[in-house]
């Protein structure tokens, strides 16, 4: 190390914080938040929401809809249900089934199965497999494996390996 000083090279300890202070360079810790406060610079956390509230500035969340409602300002709801309620208009869901009955429109409950029967429409379950035999039609499951077994028809899997195993034969 003494040789480095005599040759003119910089030893390792010359780059330390203490040496930088002697040479009047700024060490790394001088850029910390506490050091910036000592030198009256603004550190990063000074821009936080809590700090802005202390200083009296308006943080970003103060511009939210809830905060504007608390302050008595009109928030920007972008034509939503809340905006219509705030403005005193009637939103879409306020036109409920009871309201539609008064206006004699078709409410959502008019589309129910009981209402379709009253209006003599064919509800969806009338087209189901259970309803078709009552009406004398052949439902889709009539062509299924269970139906073929019931009708004693020969199924495709009757000749399969499972069938041969069940009968005691040796499958290939």
Outline type: flat
Number of domains: 4
Q: Sheet with the most strands?
A: none
Radius of gyration: 42 Å
H/E series, N to C?
HHHHHHHHHHH
Q: Given the helix and strand composition, which structural class is it? A: mainly alpha
Q: Poorly predicted ranges (pLDDT <50, ≥5 residues)?
A: none
Mean pLDDT: 61
- Total E-strand runs: 0
Helix content: 40-55%
Instruction: Compute the separation of the termini in Å.
Output: 89 Å
Beta content comes to: under 5%
Question: Could you walk me through the main structural features you see in this protein, from its secondary elements to its overall organization?
Answer:
- By secondary structure, the protein is mainly alpha-helical.
- Helix content is 41%, strand content 0%.
- The chain has helices at residues 2-7, 17-22, 33-38, 49-55, 65-71, 81-87, 97-103, 113-118, 131-135, 145-150, 161-167.
- The longest helix is centred in the N-terminal third of the chain and has 7 residues, at 49-55.
- It is flat.
């Amino acid at each position: 190390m003494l040789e480095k000083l005599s040759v003119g090279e910089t030893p390792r300890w010359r780059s330390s914080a203490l040496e930088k202070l002697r040479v009047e360079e700024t060490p790394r810790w001088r850029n910390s938040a506490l050091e910036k406060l000592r030198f009256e610079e603004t550190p990063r956390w000074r821009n936080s929401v809590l700090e802005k509230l202390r200083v009296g500035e308006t943080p970003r969340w103060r511009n939210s809809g809830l905060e504007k409602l608390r302050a008595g300002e009109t928030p920007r709801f972008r034509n939503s249900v809340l905006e219509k309620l705030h403005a005193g208009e009637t939103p879409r869901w306020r036109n409920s089934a009871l309201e539609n009955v008064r206006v004699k429109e078709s409410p959502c409950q008019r589309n129910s199965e009981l209402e379709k029967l009253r209006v003599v429409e064919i509800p969806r379950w009338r087209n189901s497999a259970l309803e078709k035999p009552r009406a004398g039609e052949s439902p889709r499951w009539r062509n299924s494996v269970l139906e073929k077994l019931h009708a004693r028809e020969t199924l495709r899997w009757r000749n399969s390996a499972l069938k041969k195993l069940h009968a005691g034969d040796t499958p290939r």
